[in-house]
Design brief:
By secondary structure, the chain is α/β, with parallel strands linked by helices. The chain is about 40% helix and about 20% strand. The protein has a 5-stranded parallel beta sheet, with helices on both faces. The protein has a 4-stranded parallel beta sheet with strand order 3-2-4-5, with helices on both faces. Strands 7-6-8 form a 3-stranded parallel beta sheet, sandwiched between helices. The longest helix is centred in the N-terminal third of the chain and has 17 residues. The chain is flat, with a radius of gyration of 22 Å.
Amino acid sequence: MTEAQATPQTGKRVLLAKPRGYCAGVDRAVQTVEEALTLYGAPIYVRKQIVHNKHVVQTLEAKGAIFVEENDEVPEGATVIFSAHGVAPEVHEQARARSLRAIDATCPLVTKVHHEAKRFAAEDYDILLIGHEGHEEVVGTTGEAPAHIQLVDGPEDADRVTVRDPNKVVWLSQTTLSVDETLETVARLKKRLPMLQSPPSDDICYATSNRQQVVKEIAPRCDVVIVVGSRNSSNSVRLVEVALDAGARAGYLVDFASEIDDAWLAEARTVGLTSGASVPDELVQEVLAHLAVRGFADVEEIVTANERLTFSLPQELKRDMRAAAGTRS
């Protein structure tokens, strides 16, 4: 396609979602690894993927981060960072037993759910945790009160729930779920458990909700919606589902622009584009360039919310950074 053909005159356009990409928790987690590498030097060990994005993990590996599955893969006395998805208390205990310098990069919004689980368990509630079985966040939250928590994996699971006292039960949720599906699950639960209590505030994080809301806005106008994100990213996978439910004719998840199949675009006039909460915007810009070469050069950004929230770095890392700064001065 020539440059003359790749113009708005082709009638092809991109609706670019905003908000998209990095949320405050992901930004904090990635910065934690980068600052730790600068402060302590490589290698820095990271338990699980710091965030669920292939590009981010590969970039940090190139800088000296080593990703492991469990603490016993980390040499005794070394530095380990816990991912943004959170860990169970036993993981902290394992780190202490191996004399590891542990830095907890758990997203504060996930930590909030952990605190809720501990509080309700202390009050002897049955806790129904809505989430996906095996997801790291669910494993970490469940570890806070395993005797009180049972997983509810979607609306169909609601009918299989049993509790000790239907007057003393509360639901909590994974932070990266589909808002609509979670509400459907809660509605199903409340049919069986009318006294079911809700968390003090929304457990699904603001970034997940905001990214789903703007996709709902653009999807009915799109022939194709492309979501940039990794397949193990819960919030990215949900964005494709939300786009299809909201009226997009087709939806696809890609890590990189090179994964886009031209056949997806053959009959399209309007392409929607967004990215999951663990995706750096440079990957979105590469997709935009890829689409422009194929005639989709007219880009309209659709904004439904402006996000300004930031989180400070983990306390243990900030303490060492201050000490290092004091030594240099």
